[in-house]
TrEMBL record:
Active site per UniProt: D282
Residues holding ATP: V125, A126, S127, A128, S129, V130, A131, Q132, V133, K147
Principal subcellular localization: membrane
Listed pathway(s): Cofactor biosynthesis; ubiquinone biosynthesis [regulation]
UniProt cross-references to Pfam families, sorted A to Z: ABC1 (PF03109)
First-tier enzyme category under EC: transferase
Name of the protein this chain belongs to: Probable protein kinase UbiB
Role played: Is probably a protein kinase regulator of UbiI activity which is involved in aerobic coenzyme Q (ubiquinone) biosynthesis.
């Protein structure tokens, strides 16, 4: 019943703000537009369509606001008026009032906020769909940003997620592609990340991890977290000073090299994904700033993506194969990963991928229609019954954000050329001699702990009789001989490993 009421409310907001205009824009539906005008004669739509769309998304809640944030970065897919207006959703969502701010802090700390902070501005500096940020001073005078969760936000999100889950179930039942797209798993993945975003202690832990990953701060600055003031509903971190990445003219005025900045953004993305397997998955322009020296500053770490070693290896293989135009390798990687049915003909899948990718190479971003590119990729995946991978949905969303950000900074950015050297270096570290050396060094301490116990374990294994008492004679002798040979092979392997460890220790100057 609650889901039905929520659906009715969504339809009410859509009608009230005239969102039917977006769905009835096609010339073939002119007759239906006339019918709607007659039926909804009472409606007065004085504001521009972009403003009405933004207001409707704000009224519908955080999930719809996040959808608008993602769209705002895709200026290649949207008219300028809509893209400009949706950009306001990145950090200009209407805030909750100061009295609620004070009440939340009172509840969290058990005392008034003026006894916790030396100073606190009750008017937010930024307000987003899930939380808003206030500037403050700690008792020792350090400048901090205080992020406060919106009161009652979990209840609203739970209702929308329940509605999305129902819609996903209908898609699976009613559409031919429903099961292949795995919509319920995608919604579950999205719900998992939203649940983490609603716990600011998790966000603080994410920020600490990302700060540790980029501890040299050569490319990316991550604010320090002040744990003594953190709570599941309040997060306190170092205040940063920078220029919003969307303010390109201001960045240019301070003398920052814009093309170099765009290339560093690509490097940061691929470093997070392939080196760490831990990446910022909400990289819209409202969460990215630029320091005066040209380094990036990241904020809002509520949604982070993770990748397994298998995922990273698969993705790196595919990216490199794409960059090298080795479509046979792309097809083979999909088959080996089980992402397409095993009966798929490799040559046909290769030809389909080639037809999609060749038109976009050797072109700057400004000349590539990523909307058409994604549409053709979807057509290929549908033709070959390729399954959607829920664990990569956040990565796909982030890649769209990064591409949109790169387009804003430098439309002439060559994404392929910028990323290829990084991926080649990463792959050489994963499968080359460097990988062998690194794995030996990682395993050496474990082997050092196991080797002293090896003679005892060998003796126990050799004196144990695994054969039934009734098996005697030649069969028993043969089995014992095989067992001896197997243990000899194990011992030989261990000795070889010891030699490798000793040589490496010698070469690296160790004991």
């Amino acid at each position: 019943m609650m889901r039905l009421l929520r659906l009715i409310y969504i339809l009410h907001i859509a009608v009230r703000y005239g969102l039917d205009e977006f769905f009835l824009a096609h010339a073939r539906l002119a007759w239906l537009r006339a019918v709607v005008r007659v039926v909804l004669f009472w409606r007065s739509l004085k504001q521009p369509r972009a403003v009405r769309l933004r207001l409707a998304l704000e009224r519908l809640g955080p999930i719809f606001v996040k959808f608008g944030q993602v769209l705002s970065t895709r200026r290649d897919l949207l008219p300028d008026d809509i893209a400009d207006e949706l950009a306001r959703l990145q950090d200009q969502v209407p805030p909750f009032p100061p009295e609620q701010v004070a009440a939340v802090l009172q509840q969290v700390y058990g005392r008034p906020h003026d006894q916790v902070f030396r100073e606190l501005d009750l008017l937010p500096v930024a307000s987003a769909s899930v939380a808003q940020v206030h500037f403050a001073l700690l008792p020792d005078g350090r400048e901090v940003a205080v992020k406060i969760l919106r009161p009652g936000i979990r209840r609203v999100i739970d209702k929308d997620l329940a509605l999305l889950d129902t819609a996903a179930g209908l898609i699976e039942v009613l559409f031919a592609d429903g099961k292949r797209l795995r919509p319920r798993e995608v919604v579950a993945e999205f719900a998992h990340h939203l649940d983490e975003e609603l716990d600011l202690l998790r966000e603080a832990a994410n920020a600490s991890q990302l700060r540790r990953n980029f501890q040299d701060q050569r490319l990316l600055i991550v604010p320090e977290v002040f744990w003594d003031w953190c709570h599941s509903e309040v997060m306190v971190m170092e205040r940063i000073h920078g220029i919003p990445v969307s303010h390109v003219e201001r960045i240019r005025e301070v003398g920052i090299d814009i093309p170099a900045l765009a290339r560093r953004g690509v490097e940061i993305f691929f470093t997070q994904v392939f080196r760490d397997g831990f990446f910022h998955a909400d990289m819209h322009p409202g969460n990215i700033f630029v320091a005066p020296d040209g380094r990036y500053i990241g904020v809002d770490f509520g949604i982070m993506g993770t990748l397994t070693e298998r995922d990273k290896h698969y993705l790196a293989q595919n990216f490199l194969a794409f960059f090298n135009r080795d479509y046979k390798q792309v097809a083979r990687a999909h088959l080996e990963a089980g992402w397409v049915p095993p009966q798929t003909r490799e040559d046909q899948f290769e030809a389909a991928i080639r037809s999609v990718c060749e038109p976009v190479f050797d072109r700057p971003i400004k000349e590539i229609s990523f909307g058409r590119f994604l549409l053709r990729l979807f057509q290929v995946s549908r033709r070959f019954n390729m399954e959607i991978q829920p664990q990569l949905v956040m990565l796909q969303k982030t890649l769209l954000n990064v591409e949109g950000l790169g387009r804003q900074l430098d439309p002439d950015l060559d994404l392929w050329t910028t990323a290829k050297p990084f991926l080649e270096r990463w792959m050489s570290e994963q499968v080359g001699w460097r990988a062998l050396v690194r794995h030996v060094k990682q395993e050496a301490p474990r082997w050092a702990a196991l080797l002293p116990a090896l003679p005892r374990r060998l003796e126990e294994a050799l004196v144990r009789d695994p054969l039934p008492a009734l098996q005697q004679g030649f069969a028993r002798l043969l089995a014992e001989q095989k067992r001896r040979n197997r243990w000899l092979a194990v011992i030989a392997g261990l000795l070889a490993l010891l030699v490798v460890i000793a040589l490496w220790s010698r070469l690296s100057g160790g004991p």
